[in-house]
Amino acid sequence: FHPSDYLPGLKKHWAAEGGEASYALLTRCFILVNSTTSRIKTVDTLVNCLRLLIEGDPESLLPAVWLATNSISPTYISLELGLGGSAISKALKKVCMLDNKGLKSLYDKYGDAGDVAFEAKKRQSFTLRKPKPLSIKSVYQLLVKIANSKGIGSVEQKQRFVERLVQDARGAEESRYIVRTLVQHLRIGAVKTTMLIALARAFSLARSPNAEYPIRDIGELSKLKKEDLAPMWAKAEEIVKTCFARRPNYNDIVPALLEIGVCDELLLRCNLALHIPLRPMLGSITRDLGEMLTKLQGRDFSCEYKYDGQRAQVHCDENGKVSIFSRHLEVMTDKYPDLVALVPDIRGDGVSSFILEGEVVAVDQENGDLKTFQTLTNRARKDVDIGTIQVNVCLFAFDLMYLNGEPLLSRPFRERRGLLRSMFQEKHYRFTWVKSIDATSQDAETVQEFLKSAIDIKCEGIMVKVLDNLPNPDLITDDMEGSEALKAELKAPVTPSKRGNKKKTQDEKEEEKKSGARRKALLSTYEPDKRLDSWLKVKKDYDSNVFDTIDLIPVAGWHGQGRKAAWWSPILLACRNPETGSLEVVTKCISGFTDKFYKENKEKYSEDGENTTKSKPSYIEYSGGHPDAWFEPQEVWEMAFADITLSPVYTAAIGLVNEDRGLSMRFPRFLKVRDDKSIEEASTNEFLANLYRKQEQKLKLEGKSGTTE
Ligand code: ATP
């Protein structure tokens, strides 16, 4: 038996020189993942690749995890490759002996830089020097060296490293993935989103002293009885995901896993830490106030203004050092020196260290009036000098996750909010609490008025948050829908510290199971990275037909007509399919753009520039026409629309609500560029399908039929 049996077709190349796991292993894993649309197979492949490393070359595990997730460090540590497209083109030309024309024709034909590298390498008749086989470790180390090359001569130095990688890639497939890694579009989306699951499973299976299942290859893994593995995996996955949500850095979790495996102690090892951002808790969308009030029957909740600004996580340690992080865990400390300077003023006497969260909003310093999100985006992005600040901001605080050395995540929201408001001090138009009222489902009118007042001052709507872990007995009446389940919750509370099934009768267990999902979704604890029903967003008024907005990626354009002849119009937009890593086209848009925007857009995606290609890249799903240029996906646009329709042309979300038809939208309108979102955070096909399901539900309630394009 050879460990490479875990990944069929690998035996010959599993180790590079010196016994280190070869880059060929990872390439093999990527090829297998790319060749299947089955999610089960994707996860199994990844699990096997990781097991192979855990058992055969544990030191290569961490570099492999970074490479497979197409990054080299967490977002809160600034380590960028800093390569332009020309560095890769130059390397390909030199290593594969191509001229400008030859390379351009490959780009026009294949679109994706990795596919171009694949073809170029395939056509290469001889090499400049014999390639030195790449190991996983050596590739990762070279990437780090590229990122760390700074100052005089760094451009040339980076270029040499890039050429070395392209040169040493053995064969066309390795070249494809090396180049995709360098341009940071690996195009195996499923790997990134399933890495935590794969790590949890791999560590439960690997042949360590704790291993329970010494299984050999993918075939055997798939044949195993689900009932045997499911409970073990579910527990392992929850532990690993919880750790990563609290401390999202593979450099912390992978070494800890190698040392102690998946166990409860891992939660202590990877707990909250100051100056390391935790993943924020997220809000679930509701259709309207009615749906929100039904969901939260029996509960006390807080309604808060939903300000339109930028989310900020503020960390402060005992020495007064402050760090500020964005919703996507990027460092914003230098962007907001005014907030940093504010910390000594707002922190009460008993506070030594804390992590709090709020929304940064541009405000008028004279009267505290809120300004638009657009105004906030006009503030410089980085390294703002406190003396030159033009756009003043106020931090509207809404949660407290850590205080004086102690994580508060498992405390009910009422308690966290109480501590926030009692231990910190407001400062006029600079720091205050989000405006809120406490209510129950019986206070529909008051809540509606509160929502209206929020919209009147240009907030986006309200956030509604459950205050306690248990329902309020005074709110449960027998005629209420779901009253039995609510009573059961009171009888057998699931508190975060006492989950488990100790000494319960069968009936009690059954009862608990029934209302278990609802209960978990309504705990008022702070759950990093989770989108639960204990935080609900109500964005628009009752009567509005607009459900929400959607974040799409512009992927292609046609030459405009008449006045718009010099610009791209219409523009084609796509959502993500995280399972396959492809982009699924949803709609064409011609509305909401200013002339200035059109002009800048055309400059960015200029016809012969490096951001466009003539032919459709393989990762884009669209067969409805031939745009004049395909855009390199790189930004996210927030879009409004009238409604979602079943479409015979667009294939987005096909199979999710209808076997043969995809989804599109009527009257799409551009709202804004989401500078705070990367393309990996664009809306998914599942999100689109959900919008459609909600819309159909609403139409049904109103007695109308569904929408087809
Ligand atoms: P999400 O953050 O849920 O993925 P998104 O980025 O599109 O989606 P929204 O749907 O607009 O954001 O809603 C959530 C955001 O609202 C939060 O991330 C936060 O920045 C902002 N926000 C404003 N006011 C509040 C509040 N009172 N409580 C929580 N979040 C608030």
UniProtKB/TrEMBL annotation:
EC number: 6.5.1.1
Domain of life: Eukaryota
GO biological process: DNA biosynthetic process; DNA recombination; DNA repair; lagging strand elongation
Residue ranges occupied by any ATP-dependent DNA ligase family profile domain in the UniProt entry: 386-577
Lyase keyword on record: no
Region described as Disordered: spans on this chain: 489-520
Biased composition (Basic and acidic residues): 504-515
GO cellular component: nucleus
Record keywords: ATP-binding, DNA damage, DNA recombination, DNA repair, DNA replication, Ligase, Nucleotide-binding
Keyword Metal-binding in record: no
GO function terms (MF aspect): ATP binding; DNA binding; DNA ligase (ATP) activity
Catalysis performed (reactions): ATP + (deoxyribonucleotide)n-3'-hydroxyl + 5'-phospho-(deoxyribonucleotide)m = (deoxyribonucleotide)n+m + AMP + diphosphate
Similarity-based family: Belongs to the ATP-dependent DNA ligase family.
Name of the protein in question: DNA ligase
Biological source species: Knufia fluminis
Portion of the full sequence shown: 161 to 869 of 882
